[in-house]
């Protein structure tokens, strides 16, 4: 296990699932079967449900570009925090009219990572409310 195994696991997830070319099916190799993501205060439980959520999310942003800003971990690598940005064009994000408006999201993800590098859970917060207000103004 490397000293930065947690950071490596999260950066690998970003690169494979969210950065171009996005491959949501890589989730099968990167997260545990009972993975949990908490987003917007709601828990999505299970690898398959998480993959479905990612596919739906990605379908609402055209020309999606995901940029990890900073990623760091605790001493043993079991907890990782990552700041990120995402840009693209609106294709129905959060139920809005797919009008091609620019999208710019910023967010923070806090992960639990097993010693073998498998991702166990993620709690993500992002500026979705502010973006939704702008898209519907």
TrEMBL record:
Pfam families named in the record: SnoaL_2
Top-level taxon of origin: Bacteria
Transmembrane segments: none
InterPro entries, alphabetized: NTF2-like_dom_sf, SnoaL-like
Entry protein name: SnoaL-like domain-containing protein
Segments forming domain SnoaL-like: 13-118
Organism: Rhodococcus jostii (strain RHA1)
